[in-house]
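Recall the central idea of this unit: under ordinary conditions, the amino acid sequence of a chain determines the structure it adopts. In this exercise we apply that idea directly, starting from the sequence alone.
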Amino acid sequence: MAGVIGYRRIYEDASPQDGKRVLVDRLWPRGVSKEEAHLDEWLRDVAPSTELRHWYHHDPGLFDEFRRRYTAELNDRDHRPAVELLHHLAAHGKVTLLTATKDVDHSEAAVLADWLNHSEEQHA
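Accordingly, the structure predicted from this sequence is:
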């Protein structure tokens, strides 16, 4: 049975309910030490491309198009190993995707969690 994939900001305190904690940002978050992060994985390769990240620039008005472009990227071969690892982690329990983005509901973590949860449902 697949676990639940959630998301939250890395600046929030770690919780036992997080399950596996996976940073999905391409860049390391400012002001967070590796010890404070309590990460199980840092999957830079699952993050949006630099070009897409710069285009989006966390503008909520562009979110729907960002979601479309990012999910297209998630299906390419450059993202495949990281996506497969996330599927593996989720198959064994809860996974929390972490991001430094202030507006977490309009972030790659939100898109990725939704995309993974729906793809897990299709594989179940």
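Residues 58 and 106 are 7 Å apart (CA to CA).
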